[in-house]
């Protein structure tokens, strides 16, 4: 970071604007949730936890949150084996049609979410499973799967193939090689990937909106529906649930693998 | 003999049994096919999307009979013609495309210095702070973030109250095009920074020092050294931001308040308001095509950038 004064002025100006833009909604939602008034003002008129007390009483919110957790759990449980195996296969082996498979596996990112969501809605509708929660989890898993594969390939490329050969040479059968050499080596990638999958599924909005009905509404959809009518502080208090989950995810990511992992050049 | 067998730890015996099962259903001579077996679940899961696209394509060719509310059994391209000729869709498509281009440009302008500072700073504390400030909103989700903007920019929002204190009449800061653009830039910043940062890490700092010692000032160093070398990052970030903002739903819906619909909102309305599934499916198909053409164009021009997965990276 050696540089002229004008360089740091320009850099810091742009970065400060970016920082303010990034953080403003989070800070404002946090502040608004502690208000004592009936409408949202900032700074709040007096501090209170009454809106938190209110939302902890509301069973529709609690149920919606539980459903969202269920969706995220299904998504992560499916994504871990599927993404780990695919990531290791892509990173370690010279597979035929590698480019084609890569492009195919990037489809969830290249197909717009509205397209994926409506496609899945039509399929699940035909299969008669619309209106249940687990298909929503599967849908969240499909649309974010490249994140999981990515995280695993990134850590699998650092694995020396000689280690696996050495283990096999010492008499380890294939599964044992996989569980005691390959898997521990890609563990940072698996952890990163599954945290990403969980938190993204927790926040997934559009695909949920298309796949849920009034009986199994998830929390982001519920918040969206309530925004439309009237803005009250209880909405801010529920939103804080997401902020808290995000903070926990960031903390875990930093503790378990280190956030710096995202700065590494591939 | 029996005593000796049970002397083995339970985990060993379980592993042996599993190895036996694995060897029985997947003998060593299938070894060459193992990577394909490992890829199979992912391929099947993503196959759901392909099936979905086929369903959409099928629905897009059926027209709605407005008297019976039944879909035609035979295929026609009537929906395609309607999608191209109805002025509403042209307005919406143009609005989304222009927005995507503006948002991409603005986001990259702000994401680059952020990523640069984060990668180059000598202070681990600052780096961590910038990373946390990036990930926290990234993990919060669009709906909550858009809600935060409503509190700030709304008609009785913070900005308007602050303006009221100095005697300025309240202004309408949301439910317009700039508000949607602003919300999208905020949503896209973390994506762009995370795609740019690895590309910047790959540029040796010595190169910048060398350019400096040869007499280039920092602006020329950026233009001739850093920006060209960061191209894979810009390609990755550009593609992600372009396609995500072109196809976004939540930000136009919440910050646009129904008056600033993007393509995704128009598709949603066809399915859930007008109930013309055929036309909605046709629009969705055209959006998929538009997105793929844009991505393909960028990849053909600049390579896959930081989006490549697996062993061969550019």
Give the tags.
heterodimer, A: 266 residues, mainly alpha, MetI-like fold, B: 314 residues, 2 domains, two-stranded antiparallel ribbon, 15 helices, globular, MetI-like (chain B), Putative spermidine/putrescine transport system permease protein (chain B), cell membrane (chain B), transport (chain B), MetI-like_sf (chain B)
Largest sheet of chain A, if any? none
The proportion of strand residues of chain B reads: under 5%
Q: Helix segment count of chain A?
A: 12
CATH class of the largest domain in chain B: Mainly Alpha
* Beta-strand content bin of chain A: under 5%
Mean pLDDT of chain B: 87
Tally of distinct domains of chain A: 1
Note the overall shape of chain A.
globular
Shape of chain B: globular
Domain ABC transmembrane type-1 (chain B): 93-298
Transmembrane segments (chain B): 36-57, 97-117, 129-154, 174-197, 233-258, 279-304
Membrane topology (chain B): Multi-pass membrane protein
Family (chain B): Belongs to the binding-protein-dependent transport system permease family. CysTW subfamily.
